[in-house]
Design brief:
The chain has 179 residues and is an all-alpha fold. It folds into 2 domains: 84 residues, no CATH class; 59 residues. The chain has 11 helices and no strands. The N terminus and C terminus are likely disordered.
Amino acid sequence: MFLSISAQALDDTCKSLQLKKYVEMDYKAFDQSPPNGGWRELQDKGQDLEIAKIIDGYLKCRSGLTAEQKATLVFHSGQIYADLEKNDFAIERMKKAYNADLDKKYHWNSFVDGTIAFLQRDLKKLTVARDKVLLAEPDHPYVETLNDLIKCFKRPYKDFDRCRNKQTTKPSHSNSATH
C-alpha cells in the first residue's frame, strides 16, 4: 500500500502543469542558463520556496540526469532553502551533493563542506574547507567564495550575495598616477 501511495504522489508531482514546463527542459536550459533561464526566471521575485520545490520536482521527475547534474541541482536546492533560512532542509540537501567526479574537477566536496559549515555556524570547518581548496589550487574561484563566506560569517545565508558584493568606498585620487 505504501509503495502505491508513494508512486501515486510521485506521478501527481510529475504531472503538475507548472513543473511539466521545467521537466521538459534539458539540464542546461533548466539549471545552467543564468540569469533568466530555467528556474532562475523566478529569482528575485519572492518565489524562493516555489523555486526550491521546482528544483526538487525536477530532480524527481526528469530522467537521464547524470550524477554530477543531480549533485549540482540538489546543492542549488539547498542554497534556495538556505536563502529561506530553512537550514535543516538546506543541509539535508547539500549532504546529498557530494560527488567524486565534481570534486576531482572543481574541489566540489570542499566547497559543499564549507557551505554546510557556514550554515552550521562552524567557522573552523569552513576555514578548513577553504584551506583545502587554497592548497590544491590557490586561484580557484571557490577560494574567493569560501573567503567571502568567512567574511560574511555572522550574516544569514540570505544576505550572502549582498555582503560579498558590498563595495567599500575608497577616496578618489584624481591626480595619482596609474600603474
